[in-house]
Amino acid sequence: MEILVCARRVPDTSENEIQLNGAGNDIERDDLVYSINEPDNYAVEEALQIVAKSGGNVTVATVGTDEDEEILRREMAMGANHGVLLSDDAFNGSDGKGIATVLKGFVQKNRFDLVLTGVQAEDGGAQVGGMLAAMLDYPFASLVNSIEVVDGTKLKISREIEGGNREMSEIDLPCVLSIQTGINEPRYVGMRGIRQVASLEIPTYGASDLGVDAASVGEAAANVKRDDYFVPVLGKGATILEGSNEEIADKLIAMMKAKGGLQ
Amino acid sequence: MTARIFAYIVHKDGVLDDTAAELLAAAKKIDPSASPTALVTGSGAELDTVCNSLCTSYAEVWKIASESLAYPNAELVRQALTKLLPAGALVLVPHNHFGIDLGPGLSIKMNAAFVSDVVGIDGVDGTALKVVRQEFGGQVSTHVRCNISSGAVINLRPGAFKPVQSAPVAGVVIDKSAEVGAVTAKRRYLTTVVAEAGDVDISKEPVLISIGRGIQEKDNIGIAEELAEAMGAVVSCSRPVVDAKWLPKSRQVGSSGQTVKPKIYLACGISGSFQHLAGLKGNPFIVAINKNPKAPIFQVAEVGIVTDMLEFLPELTNKIRAMKQVSV
Ligand SMILES: Cc1cc2nc3c(=O)[nH]c(=O)nc-3n(C[C@H](O)[C@H](O)[C@H](O)COP(=O)(O)OP(=O)(O)OC[C@H]3O[C@@H](n4cnc5c(N)ncnc54)[C@H](O)[C@@H]3O)c2cc1C
Predict the structure, then answer these.
(1) What chain B residue is nearest to A127 in terms of C-alpha separation?
(2) Residues 95-124 of A with CB under 8 A from B
(3) Is A32 within a domain?
(4) Which ipTM did the prediction report?
């Protein structure tokens, strides 16, 4: 099976304290730690497990700039056969539909049986996979948390629905699936693995290579645009307990006793 | 504002989802004079019950009945809606597991814009719908403009729009089934597998020590278990702890886990994502323990402690043990 995984490099929100920049039009990016978007990494692992059983190749593609190459190399160190960078000034400022349009161009220049994305990225969009599928007229399923290859024409999948219940379906190939975290246990990538792929050539394709009309992507074509970033003021917020850990523990114990949570 | 507004109604076993009223409230924020149309797919008597119950709040209810739509398979629903919706329509969809499946593809088929996980609506400015979204795990918000000149699909976060009380309307149900005709999809629903029950039922526990990604390693889980034991409480968690297989799924609080209603909830190393908070009901006394003072959990907690949980929790455990020894 030929599998494409669409992946993205994002600031790691669990590691970073996000601050706004002075102008309020972006976050302060200088000291951020970047990594591969977490669900995308699960998607790559899933693709690797499928080809280990059924044969084929895994290609990881990202729409971005040279800086994003590092996640392609990381996923190649994990075992992906190819990494490709889809990059062009014309892509800058694309909304979700613009990104899906670029990826569609790449899919149509190749032959993939299965296209995977992560469920969502740090902007919570959860959109590129579903859009790409609709553009290609492939069936789509989101929030996928298990995949079983039935034969060369279809998969049996489950989607995560409310309460952790699983919706089981059969889906025809080729298809697009968005992968939910927890579907597998992504393998560890060591420094040694990264070094081994450090000098591999990463092909870069622009709008004309992909047959993408530059007017259909980028900022000018975007229907959805951010005006600014801001920090919302919600409710009164928590009363912050001050002092040493020991002092705070005493205060907290008194509060929990008062609430009947401690006898 | 001339665009016609539609609301996709989620329902189950003949009962309306809470989002049915929330979408109505959101439509009024787009246009206070709007009279949105409810879109309801399904089959049989349950569908009729749902359509009828919508008639007091929605002036027009489009009923789309078909055996193949008995289960809400977004691939089929998308086709049905694409056949029916007029050009330029604004379609409101709840951003839950169904809306995530439906919205993006529907927008492409309608040749319309798409915005996901909207938490606020500021109104319309020319051809732009102004909405509020969150990014980076809720740490920052953004004002977003969506060009609605050729229609849009707007996915709304469940719980973000408070239902508004308004005078009941005498709505009508319009049967659109014939216009839709047969729908088929390359994705076929088979069955639903219900999540396994765990060793303890966290939904019934009065005190939960809940741990998130801040616990950092499997070996640290013991720190939380010791505190729980000292307090007579139970350990629950956020999703990353389950993803890493450090605790079973039955311990997960949130939209894709359990709904809990404790009296006291200690959120330790949990950032406070909306999917996590969706599982927290009954107005508990929330204590947030987090080393990042900007973590969104501090906005919903009663009491906050900005510290390293790995140091603080053992301290708390020792204090409680000492206290219990004295009182024995
Ligand atoms: C469809 C869908 C359904 C989902 N369902 C659920 C669900 O049911 N339940 C759920 O929980 N999530 C769910 N999620 C995931 C959710 O979006 C968040 O990613 C998740 O809740 C984050 O968990 P967390 O707060 O533990 O981790 P993070 O967001 O990574 O936060 C970790 C926090 O720990 C703090 N921290 C780190 N180290 C320490 C330390 N030593 N001491 C103190 N604090 C520390 C950090 O400052 C940070 O605030 C779902 C996501 C999707 C897309």
Answers:
(1) B104
(2) 96-97, 100, 119, 122-124
(3) yes
(4) 0.96
